[in-house]
Amino acid sequence: MASPLVARLAQLRSSARIAVEDERGQTTFAELMDRALRVRGALLAASAPRGAGERAEPASLEGERLLLLASPGAAWVAALLGTILAGGIALPLSPLYPPAELTWLAGDAGVRRVIVSDDLAALAAPLAQGRAVLRVEDLERAAPGPESALADLAEDDPALLLYTSGTTGKPKGALLTHRNLAVQAELLRAAWGFSEEDVLLHALPLHHMHGVCIALATSLLAGSATRMLPRFDAQRVAAEIARRSATVLMAVPTMYQRLFEHVDRGGAPGFAAGARALRLATSGSAALPVTLAERWRDLTGAIPLERFGMTEIGVGMSNPLDPGARRAGWVGAPLPTVEARITDDAGAAAGWAPGEERGQPGGAAVARGELWIRGPSVFKGYLGREDETRAAFQDGWFRTGDVAERSADGYFRLLGRTSVDILKSGGYKLSSLEIEETLRDHGAIAEVAVVGVPDEEWGERVVAVVVAAPGREAECATAPLRAWAKERLAPYKVPRDAIVVQALPRNAMGKVVKPELVKAIERGTLAGRSS
Ligand code: MCA
Ligand code: AMP
User: Fold this and answer.
1) Looking at ligand 1, which residue's alpha carbon is closest to its atom 34?
2) Quick check: CB of 211 below 6 Å from ligand 1?
3) How far is the CA of 307 from the centre of ligand 2 (A)?
4) Closest atom of ligand 2 to CA, residue 209
5) Using a 6 Å cutoff on CB, does residue 492 contact ligand 1?
6) Residue 503's pLDDT is what?
7) Using CA positions, which residue lies closest to atom 24 of ligand 1?
8) Element (H, E) at 114
9) Rounded to the nearest whole angstrom, what is the distance from the C-alpha of residue 232 to the centroid of ligand 1?
10) CA 308 to centroid of ligand 2, rounded, Å
């Protein structure tokens, strides 16, 4: 089957409506597509085998992974679409990553070409070893090239590679196909009522599912405009809302928290009226505390629309667009093509009423257990990790690792994770094993356990509990340890606190009992807190 993503982009190709607004101005869909096709042409031309005087252009990049390191805005979108339309797989990464992480990710993904924007060129320098670094500004000026091969792109072709933390040390690259992206965008357009009249206020990072697909792709493919800010800054976002530059806001809970802090400091006159004027405000990536939801309702008359998503599946469940039917603390019901199953320990559907069709959402019985998902928005697999891909699925269902409850009327709520090693801080999924693995390279650390401690601002706060090598306790204090870790990990993965202890609590099998550590930290009874 031909790519539905290509088909939808072709429909938007001649539209004179605004697609993207950024710090440089406005770009129409027609201009954006023209820029994307030039990027495509340049990528294809550069990868063509050059015979004697001949220039045979390849029809497709055939799944080549291209790393994208550019500032948010129309150029970023053109580079992403150009890569995908050339048959490549786009790997968008964050300028927040230190060189060590960028290099590891590029190596893991087998990247040979890197696309950078001029302002981030210095960050790409460590990636240049054995790789071509291309300026997006140059690619956008190239000739578009023949378009006949666009029709060859298929719905099952991978388009996007997004890295996500798992229960094994290093992150895994999830491959999303043309169909995944198109289905997901269409589900959300319909569920959230997107139209050409909408303007999405976009301040989410562009290396994760929320920012790239749930927000940007939904808005773009609905023909709406997307107002892309360079980064999330509460003052700027509040000012945009106050001056009603957008109709929709998508955010993670920590962003709502930051907006309220800004309001409490007396900032942004007109913010409350602007927030009330928004057609829609959504929250996701982590549980929205009911207190925050209610504060938004006090300000605007409605709680944010909370939904559940995951890199591997896009959005699975969503509260209704109708504010009156939204339920604080719940993530709503599965979207139309999403099948959700709550499973018992043996993997069987749990809690179904007699006579009810198994695996169908909206059952009459209450159920609690691991959440499994099936449907056309579920990803293709982890790049180069067949064993982990196999382990992630059972009987055709993707196992989310989230523990959920389904109410008798078919609403879902998240109760926690099956693994203590997966944390969520400010909406970013983190692997405590990955952070521990990095910290173990520190010569002053004899043993370490990384845990997530419930936190009002971050959802979970990352804390490293450390046994220091003899006489090296001072090096394990929070400040020096953070400075050391920042050179090796993205800043949001760096533990906010380090606590030095004599020994870690272990069970009979020798495994660190992390829940015990978390309780002790919350009670303030863990010895030797350092800062
Ligand atoms: C920044 N810092 C963090 C985090 N973000 N620390 C822990 N957790 C974080 N999430 C660090 C900074 O490096 C800095 O460290 C200090 O905190 C203060 O930074 P600040 O400037 O105040 O923070 P910020 O840059 O404004 O970032 C807060 C943020 C950001 C905007 C909420 O975390 C963010 O963009 N989160 C969104 C993540 C996201 O999109 N997740 C979606 C995954 P220092 O003081 O040392 O300099 S996809 C997903 O989950 C599924 C699909 C779904 O359902 O959506
Ligand atoms: P990621 O791997 O970054 O895509 O994160 C996906 C995870 O975020 C899910 O497996 C959930 O644990 C969590 N998550 C997403 N949305 C919500 C929500 N509304 N409430 C609670 N957890 C959420």
Assistant:
1) 426
2) yes
3) 9
4) 4
5) yes
6) 95
7) 232
8) strand 113-116
9) 9
10) 6
Q: Which ligand is nearest to the CA of 204?
A: 1
CA distances from 62 to 2, 16, 124, 149, 158 (A): 15, 31, 24, 12, 9
Give the number of domains in the chain: 2
For ligand 2, atom 10: residue with the closest CA: 310
Ligand 2 pocket, residues with Cβ under 6 angstroms: 164, 208-209, 284-287, 306, 308-311, 331, 400, 402, 414, 417, 424, 429
Q: Are 352 and 416 in contact (CB under 8 A)?
A: no
**DSSP type of residue 351:** S
Nearest CA to ligand 2 atom 3: 429
Q: What is the pLDDT of residue 531?
A: 44
Residue 349 confidence (pLDDT): 75
Q: How far is the CA of 310 from the centre of ligand 2 (A)?
A: 6
- Domain boundary at 120, 152, 175, which? 175
Distance CA 528, CA 510 (A): 22
Query: What gap in Å lies between CA 348 and CA 341, rounded to an integer?
Result: 9
> Does the beta carbon of 491 sit less than 6 angstroms from any atom of ligand 1?
yes
Domain span holding position 135: 1-47+60-175
Whole-model pTM over 0.90: yes
CATH code of the domain covering residue 101: 3.40.50.980
pLDDT at 55 (0 to 100): 52
Q: Which residues of the chain have pLDDT under 50?
A: 354-355, 357-362, 529-531
Query: 386-444: per-residue pLDDT in tens?
Result: 999 999 999 999 999 999 999 988 999 999 999 999 999 999 999 999 999 999 999 99
The per-residue pLDDT for 355 is 45
* Residues 43-74: b if buried by 16+ CB within 10 A, e if exposed: bbbebeeeeeeeeeebbbbeebbbbbbbbbbb
Per-residue pLDDT, 100: 94
- Residue 97, in any domain of the structure: yes
Is 38 inside a domain boundary?
yes
pLDDT-above-90 percentage for the chain: 88
Write down the H helix ranges in 149-246.
Answer: 178-192, 209, 218-221, 234-242
